[in-house]
């Protein structure tokens, strides 16, 4: 099994040229000004046109949301700031999603968008039909995965990110009983001989575990594994979707079924 390579010691670099809704800080950055070229300082001054005395929406990673205030802009371009009282972030939603390893750029989008949706856990899973080289992606070790998760959190006004793990195979993932001991809705998104449609599935469960295959889908062997583990193989319609589109669409449908979209 892959090691969980997310590090909590330093905030991942965020692309502040993308839409963001909060300025996010690590606890160890508090009390120190932002350097001139820090993307958060650039975003506040150049994009948002903030100046001394102006406030902005902020958050401290793993702590809470707050209002920030620009206390000063020095001659060398550094930006001094202060933060107000913390408010709790929105709760993570009770859904765990396994996504088959796909192209690195797709993995990045999947993690960003699922983090923004608020899912509690993301698992990357090797599969029979997936490209083996995709499992060797450096995203899990070079900070790219964490950056994508943080970007999704910033977009959705959150200061937490989903738990992220990686598994060599579906067999390994299922052997750890991802559903846990509670009563969960178990769904494997699959358009090949499905038992029904996710959209027509009855809800009533408190949480969901969802699996979405890679670009080539699941093998017949893996379909048997899902059925043996109690997963319902359900479709999302007749169209072939990109992996990142399928992950988001399936996640939204599953969240609606467990009543977590209200």
Features:
single chain; 262 residues; alpha/beta; Ribosomal Protein L25, Chain P; Alpha/beta knot; 2 domains; seven-stranded parallel sheet; four-stranded mixed sheet; 6 helices; 24% strand; elongated; disordered N terminus
Structure characterization notes:
This protein folds into 2 domains: 1-88, Beta Barrel (Ribosomal Protein L25, Chain P); 93-257, Alpha/beta knot. Mean pLDDT is 88; it is low at 1-9. Strand 5 (93-100), helix 2 and strand 6 form a beta-alpha-beta unit. It is built from 6 helices and 11 strands. The protein has 262 residues and is of the alpha/beta class. The longest helix is centred in the last third of the chain and has 15 residues, at 243-257. The strands form 2 sheets. The protein has a 7-stranded parallel beta sheet. Strands 1-2-3-4 form a 4-stranded mixed beta sheet, covered by helices on one side.
Report the end-to-end length measured between terminal Cα atoms: 36 Å
> Could you list the spans in which at least 5 consecutive residues all have pLDDT below 50?
1-9
Mean pLDDT, to the nearest integer, reads 88
Q: Compute the number of strand runs.
A: 11
Q: Count the DSSP helices.
A: 6
Percent strand: 15-25%
Order of secondary-structure elements: EHEEEEHEHEHEEEHEH
Task: Report the C-alpha radius of gyration, rounded.
Answer: 20 Å
* The number of domains: 2
CATH class of the largest domain: Alpha Beta
| CATH homologous superfamily heading of the largest domain | SPOUT methyltransferase, trefoil knot domain
Per CATH, the architecture of the largest domain is 3-Layer(aba) Sandwich
